[in-house]
Specification:
- This protein is mainly alpha-helical.
- It has a domain of 56 residues: Ferritin, core subunit, four-helix bundle (Ferritin), CATH 1.20.1260.
- Helix content is 78%, strand content 0%.
- Helix 1 packs antiparallel against helix 2.
- It is elongated and about 50 Å long.
- It starts with a helix and ends in a 7-residue tail after the last helix.
- The relative contact order is 0.16.
- The model has no long low-confidence stretch (mean pLDDT 92).
- This is DUF305 domain-containing protein.
- It comes from Acidiphilium rubrum.
Length: 83
């Protein structure tokens, strides 16, 4: 589980930032959600509690959908110009 957290931390630190709060928020939230999905998949592989497994399945579905939405919003943003 810690390996998944470390991977997420590195991906968030490497997220492309441009100083626009909306862009930067989305840019960092995508790897954050990917990290949650990675951890939830570990629960599906190794977890035994049915309630936690159900939670993990919901997290995967919801966060995959949110990643698609965030990618769409990022693609629709105009480029940031600096004076």
């Amino acid at each position: 589980m810690m390996q998944a957290m470390d991977h997420m931390d590195h991906a968030m630190a490497a997220a492309p930032m441009n100083g626009d709060p909306d862009h930067d928020f989305l840019s960092m939230m995508i790897p954050h959600h990917q990290g949650a999905i990675e951890m939830a998949k570990l629960i599906l592989l190794y977890g035994k509690n049915v309630h936690i497994r159900n939670l993990a399945e919901g997290i995967i579905a919801e966060q995959e959908n949110e990643i698609q939405i965030m990618r769409h919003w990022l693609a629709m943003m105009p480029p940031v110009t600096h004076p």
